[in-house]
Amino acid sequence: MDTISIFLKIIFENIDFILPITIIFLLITSIGVVITLTLVNEDRWSLILPLGVAVGIFSFIIFLGTLSYFFKARPGILVILIIYILFGIFFYKKRKYKIPKIKFDRFFLKSFPIYFVISGLVAFLAGTTQYGGDVIAYWGFATSFANGNYPLRSPWQPDLLANHHQGTYLFEGAIHALTNADMMLIHTLYSIYIVLSGIFLIWAIVRKITKRDILSVVPALTVYFSFGAIFIPLLSVLRQYLHPEVEHIVTRLPLLLDAKNRLGGMSNLPDMIYINHRAAALLGFILVLYLIYTKLKVKGYWKPIIIAAFSVAIASSDEIYLPALVFMIGFWFIREMILKPKFRKATFTSFFLGTIIFIILFFLIGNALRDSMLTPPKEGTRFRIITSMESLLQRNESLKSAILRNSSDSSYFWFLPSVWVLGALALFLAISKRNYLVMLLFFATIGSFIAFFIVDHTFYATNNERFLSQLYQHLVFIISMSSLLLLKGKSRFLRLLAKLFLFVLVVPSIVFASVFIYKYAKKPAYNNLYGKISDDKVLLWLRTNKPKERVFFVDGFLWKTNDPYLTNHGIQNFGLFVPVAPADIKVHTPDFGVEAIDVINTLNPSEMKALKITYLYVLDNQVGRFPLKRQKDLENQDYFKKVYKDNFGSLYQVSKQYYEKGENMAGTISELSEILKGGNIFLDNPPNFNFYVRAALALELKDKENVYSVWGPGIFNYIETKIILKQPEDGISYDYIVVGPDLDPKAVCKCNEIVKIWEINQAVAYKVR
């Protein structure tokens, strides 16, 4: 009860923000329901509502992704919402159907407790889920879109297109623009919105097809709770006959998280709430799956066009679903051509029109693949197709089984079958029943399967692993739904087999995951539900007056603190352009590059010019650490014009004269590669360095052949260049040593004579003689 009280208390404290967001969600859902009822002949609200959510979200993303070229920032987003509402009103006025009545029937009475429990569990879980560092990027895209940043560019690299998942963050950015709520609350409520809609949509679809009221929830829970995991208890004597990929000791009931913990960052429900662009894309995928499966009320040639439009919006949220969509639509096209020979010409024409619409919208609506095509990296290509046997065999290792134990000497273990086994089982069950929706899903899985093996990201070696989560989710969706269909079959053997699959394999894993989710959701801390944005005055002033200017913050980072507070909050909560990343090399998240650290240390005009900084905010307590010459530069109004002052610091407009006449100072990372001429270079690693400093040093020295450093924290999460570090070993003779200022370099080289040749506040370089 204490947990519920805390949860409700936070809800009521933040109702001024939660209520407007909820109203907008309901408004978008209402329009989605109107469009849904225009498209499909359905009278069950258990199916209409989640369909309406999905249709509403992705149709609104299409509006945002196209109309934002003309209507920008907060006023523009309001105009787009009004146009969207008018679009919904038009469809409502032109309707040729009656609004279905809400039925309080037997199914409602039986299912309401399940709806209530699932909704409560997801809401509590979302409130307490811990978000990772990537939200700085996610929310930075959203808030900068609210400021008018479209086509979307990286706030930390304003010269470069985002090359990132966008659809979800266009949606969240629009909500932020309309409500001014904190992004954490918007992200959390949106996650609840799409996750619950996905669960209830699968439940409603499976219920309609299988005619099972309660058991039809099982496939939904396999996708969203257990993430497609099937764990089989086996005696330890059988261990010798198995060859798993991994064998782990766990202290809880088995989860996919413990067996396959690198599935592109999403192998459990808390991760899905955090990485909600993928949760949104999954909802969209289910929507398209059902729209292909069901008969639409519109004329036949409209169907491929509608599917094409939604597919682009889904790919905008997360392009990982594109292979599945392509193979599913391809199967649909071939089936139509075979089963309807008299209409082949019409079928081909409608699919051709759909393809044209897809291409047009693909290049209109912001998405990672489009940006990748328009802004290719300087070194190689981002994506490539790899078919070498070595690569195929290496990737096949990830498909192998896994073993989880409670202890090393336990008498039993939990066995997760390989993807190959699950695939064979799914194929057997799909063929046994030959349900159209199951076959569509199976061909979609083939698309994900092929992409897992052959798609390669040049600068992110394990990027293909995220397809693995799709494989588990899709395959066990097929297994559980086919089993439900077989329960009503004529074959006694198949009915028995279906019960075995459902109640011995699938349901236990749902129970295991539910226990994990329940314990996670019970944490009495729901910080994600606070809605008020921070009141940092300079950030508010900049968002109001200079939302598209490039501002840089000298806020004590790397001198008094290791937290770049104003930079992070300026990007993620206020959508400012803060160019801290490398000037000409694409990075995934706002990591500090060489130029940014040099600006922090020196305010050199060359580095500031490279980042195209137009405004500079300096804390009062940071001015004194600069040399007297630089302090005089700050007082020179021909160089820096003070435009804003608060209790903490001053904001300056940087003039062109400073870039033309200002003088550089020594003591920068950018000069280090010229100082270290060659030979073996030792580069220290955290905690002796701040990890941002180490990353910048590694980037500056990337063209040196022999840089020795332990690979780990302190290298860019994602950067479009090759940084090659060799592993330090005993016996290596180093010519140069780069360490933290407090470390004795002789502890590294065990040498007698060293000379300091370079120094900044955060690092020192020595030459070994």
Automatic annotation (TrEMBL):
Protein name: YYY membrane protein
Keywords on record: Membrane, Transmembrane, Transmembrane helix
TM helices/strands, residue ranges: 17-40, 47-70, 76-92, 112-131, 184-206, 218-238, 273-293, 300-315, 321-339, 351-369, 412-431, 436-455, 467-487, 496-518
Organism (species): Candidatus Woesebacteria bacterium GW2011_GWA1_39_21b
